[in-house]
Please model this.
Amino acid sequence: MNPIEEFEQYLVENGIAPKTIASYVGDVKGFCVFLQGMGVEQLTDLKRFYVSSYKSHLMENKYSVATINKKINSLQAFNLFLIDRKLTTEQVVTLRKDRIKVAAGSEGEVEVFSEQEVNQLLFFVQDRSKVSLRNHLIVWLLLYTGVRVSELCGIQLGDLDYLTNTLRVTGKGGKYREIPLRPDLVDLIKEYIRSERQENKHKDSSYLLLSQRAEKMHKDAVNTLLEGLEKQLGYKQLYPHKFRHTFCSRLLKKGVPLTTVSKLAGHAHIQTTAHYYINTSRQDKEQAVALL
Model:
């Protein structure tokens, strides 16, 4: 078994989530390819110089700060694995030294829908000659719950509690959170379940959202339907995460505390919410200055 396979096994044994394992292993493989290109064959012979050179390489190739920091996280996990297995003794990767720090005020501005775009979209999806009930529901779920596209596709009928009007979402790392649902969104869910969903050959599926091909909606299908709406509406970009950004930004704009927004979004750390959403959209800043 080579070091990367051993690392993967080590992560499995430590109960790390499958998606995180795939991310870590993929990042270490990329690092390995870089080292091989530099003539280094022995991956277990980890040196501080290799890590700093790799980070410089990523920066030169215009990788985003978030991507570089994710790769550094993976390399630190690999370094700790090597120490644990006594394949090396020195910790050469430390997040405090190696993660790229973003200067305050220079965080990336998130892309959000303007209130006019939100209203236009809400009116458009009402038209059943243009948008199916299921697709209408998808837009509302994205806009009013802020779920990730993978979470959206994973919603099961049993995750809906009609007594409390809440949705139980399984997020990253298998963590659960509850999101309150607007009464009109609950009504839309019920309407879809008793009408359009009943006509689907996969109607006995445990998943809420069905496609014609499968008993569970795939995230690629969600992206495809949003691309179709994008063309019909003439929007620049219509993608799932933009709805999530809009959900969080709208809540903050309406005075909802950062801690509450963080819990609703399912962020592991409140710093994540602060990093992305305290910085309002460029349009908000322009409007603020116009008030002077």
Observations:
- Confidence is low (pLDDT under 50) at residues 103-107.
